[in-house]
């Protein structure tokens, strides 16, 4: 390599290292997300979080998605709290009350899953995340069981469950499944 090419390369790496590393990180993210059911959400979630850009392994990506699942669960609980008391429909009020309990449990379970991930306890993580997904499903099912009553948080429930599914798919890659 001639001296001018070397100089150009050094200048390029000095000025644009983040773009070059981001491309590598982006490729790694896409490859990891290829093994999930919700590839678009996986890629969007990971690419939006700076922590995943320099991720050297799937463990870090799983940690990032788990962090987003925890945030989503907290936002859903906040939304349920805002909706609670805004309607005179007692069926909706009861469903929201049940959902509040479900999401309080889901938040605890996601926190337990985060601890399990840190200790490479993938079986425990699977148990906790599956339970959190079940809580979201129970919330949604509570509305579905009441004819004429639609859940006001269906989209939020779905996003939370999809993030949990992504966590399971990523950690299954870590476990070698």
From TrEMBL:
Residue span of the signal peptide, if any?
A: 1-22
InterPro entries with a match to the protein in the record: Invertase/methylesterase_inhib, PCW_Enzyme_Inhibitor, Pectinesterase_inhib_dom
Q: Which UniProt keywords apply?
A: Disulfide bond, Signal
Q: Does the keyword Disulfide bond apply?
A: yes
* A single GO molecular function term of this UniProt record: pectinesterase inhibitor activity
- SUPFAM superfamilies in UniProt: Plant invertase/pectin methylesterase inhibitor
User: What positions does the domain Pectinesterase inhibitor occupy?
Assistant: 24-170
On the tree of life, the source organism's domain of life is Eukaryota
Task: Name the SMART domains on file.
Answer: PMEI
Coiled-coil ranges per the record?
none
Q: What Pfam families does its record include?
A: PMEI (PF04043)
| PANTHER family associated with the record | PECTINESTERASE INHIBITOR 5-RELATED, PECTINESTERASE INHIBITOR-LIKE
* Family statement: Belongs to the PMEI family.
- Tell me the protein's name: Pectinesterase inhibitor domain-containing protein
Q: Which organism is it from?
A: Fagus sylvatica (Beechnut)
